[in-house]
Amino acid sequence: MKLKKCASLVMAAAMVLGTLSGCGSTGGTAKSSEAGSADTTAENSQESKESKEKQSGGNLVVYSACNDQILNTLIPLFEEETGIKVELLAGGTSEMLKRIQSESVNPYCDVMLGGTESMFYDFMDYFEDYTSVNDEFMLDGHHCVQGKLTPINMDSAVIMWNKNLIGDIQVNSYKDFLNPELKGKIALPDPASSGNGVSTIADMAWIYNDHEWEGEAGWNFVTDFIKQLDGKVAASSGNAHKSVADGENTVTVTYEGAAFAYLKDGADVAISYPSEGVIPGQAVSAIIKDCKNQENAKIFIDFVTSAEVQDLFGTEFMSRPVREGAKVADFIPDADSITYIERDPNEIAEHKANVIDTFNEIFAEVQ
């Protein structure tokens, strides 16, 4: 595996989502449960047969917004199982998508792995039509999007704080971020470069404007929140949640995948779901239009949606898998215990540019 990283993001562990970074096409929130049935065994056997038939060796170029744990596991496993050699470039979702756009005349990348679904909508012309052979096994709300985007995991927003720094401060809602004691202690990824950052600001504005995009109430709340940042934003989602885990900042809004990983490792962090409600998201992957290794790209998409890999998402990568019957770690909260708010993922794509511009204007004004 050849590994490259964009210079501006060498220290980032960019998350999925959808990276929201995440990461649902229609807001699906179905609960994952453990595999083990005869049907699942049959599915695995069939997939193994199809995978072997498809194996061809050769090369594949993958751009990814997934974190290091996912990449350091999936890429070698894929190479071992298929004989295909992978060149990997990792960075933030926005940066990777803009790179794909700039290379569209002569694509270098074959597959984009991970990133919040809504971030892809402005770039749909650069992706190839492909529906995985595993699409029939996906949970409701997590099937192929527009014939191009393949969901790989669910990833919703959580509040994460450092237990050694939080003291008696309560952070169970977005409103709790306005506590004067938290001023200058909040880590927010820059919305201009982070899908997590865009989603956080968009969700706050939308929720506090009675689930509408037009109006002042939501942006008044965001203005108060921005004042709490004390002039600081993180370069990436990875930098933001790492700064909380390392004790540089007290609290952040991040994706489940990042928070679950810290919990698994025994870090001094705790999480809560915003009491105002959580807007479900998912991370997706897609094949680049007119890419050089299209058949290998299809094999890769089928690989990340296989039962084997979906089990890894739920047990090792600390994300909610999107495949029926996939295994999940015991400490991942039951989806039924979370208050979800349904919202068409197209909406945030339509308003993303305005969210970024308005954030930048307010950020400059309050300094």
UniProtKB/TrEMBL annotation:
- UniProt-recorded Gene Ontology molecular function terms: thiamine binding; thiamine pyrophosphate binding
Name under which the protein is recorded? Extracellular solute-binding protein
According to the lineage, what is the superkingdom? Answer: Bacteria
Keyword Signal among UniProt keywords: yes
Where would one find the signal peptide in this protein? 1-21
Q: Where is the composition biased (Polar residues)?
A: 30-42
One GO biological process term: thiamine transport
**Record region (Disordered):** 28-56
